[in-house]
Queue: 2 jobs
Job 1
Amino acid sequence: MAILGFTFDKLSVEKDRKLMEKEKPENLEVRYNIAIKGIKEEELKLQEKQKILRFDFEFSIIYTPKIGSVELLGHILYSDKNNKKILDSWDKEKDVTDNNLKAQLLNAIFQKSNLKAISLIQEVNLPLHFPLPRLVPPDQNPKNYIG
């Protein structure tokens, strides 16, 4: 039960400069979408052939109003002794029903895709899609206020 590989197949980022100039940052809403789009069995050729699973995924960031978007498509190569059970579940439900496996896959997608998205967002000067921690000087810290 291990992730063997993580690959991006498509990286796309767009910005609407005209709309971005009109909108104020406080009106901005950011939504994420993470979806596993498909699962198929593949052969991995190392010392001997080994059957593995390929999970195709999509990670997107959508800004509202539509000042821009980020779309990342890729796949994860995964080794598990329960390949057949996972594939059967996918064929019936079109979902990963094993919650531990699903959490492992989604966490890997979220972590790697967020790092790639930060780089792409900076290239086109879109606002960062999550707040970074900020340091506040002690004299401006609201917790120190007595009044």
Job 2
Amino acid sequence: MESYSYEIQSAIICYQYAERIKSELIIASKLLEGLTGLKDDELFGAEKLMARFLDALLSEMEIAYDVTRLRCFRDASLKVMETSGRINLHEYTKANTCLSEALSFVTTCAQQAFQLLKERGCLPK
């Protein structure tokens, strides 16, 4: 019974982190879209703010990984780090692809947790 309870608790924690990080990745993607069309000082300032947001997102992802030890959070973190590098090179399309891949990793993690909770009767059918 204790193992069953631990499994459910782990799935709930995973799902909470994954949903929050998914939202933040979507926000990051929207912010990235805003970089296109900017020039000079505006672009410089926007890239700095984007870098700060991605750093905060990475911190959140590291916490999620430390708590859950799920590879999806680590893989997503690597993609967000790559996103930062792509932005520094002004490769916004490739940066957006990296964010999409990170979102895919986290979404898969959330879906697995959701499915487990549903199978265990913790969610309405």
